[in-house]
Amino acid sequence: MPPADSEKRYPRRVTLDLTDEQYDRLRTAAFEARTPMSGILRGLVDLSGSKKKLMGQAIEAAQNEDGDAPAPKKAKKSKKKY
Questions:
Q1: Of 6, 37, 47, 75, which has the most beta carbons under 10 Å away?
Q2: Mind listing the pLDDT tens digit for each residue in 66-77?
Q3: Residue 55: is it exposed, middle or buried by C-beta count within 10 angstroms (0-12/13-18/19+)?
Q4: Range 7-34 average pLDDT
Q5: CB count, 10 Å around CB of 44?
Q6: Rounded CA gap, 49 and 22, in Å?
Q7: DSSP alpha helices (H): ranges in 1-82?
Q8: pTM for the complete prediction?
């Protein structure tokens, strides 16, 4: 008898729609790393939890109509006088 949902290692399921290009990139990365695509996605979610900037970039990309990640912002130069 299979374990109940509450006993599964990953009890939450998410349906994700990807473009062909996104799917191919994820599939290629998983193949090259010899790891499941789901493991890569879980790793990205975990990483985004510790990297607030990464989560912000992901949110911006999700809000963009074309879904492309925004270009990284240039660091401001310090105007401190020594």
A1: 37
A2: 645 555 565 566
A3: middle
A4: 92
A5: 13
A6: 22
A7: 20-33, 37-50, 52-63
A8: 0.62
What is the spatial distance between Cα 52 and Cα 54, in angstroms, rounded to a whole number?
Answer: 5
Listed residue (68, 62, 23) closest to 41, CA to CA: 23
Could you say which DSSP state residue 10 is in?
S
Nearest to 26, CA basis, from 13, 40, 10 = 40
Tokens in use for 38?
């789901």
Q: Can you say whether the dihedral through the CA atoms of 78, 58, 51, 25 is positive or negative? A: negative
Identify the pLDDT of residue 66.
Answer: 61
Which pairs count as long-range contacts for 15-21, CB under 8 Å and 24+ apart, including other chains? 16/41, 19/67
* pLDDT, position 61: 83
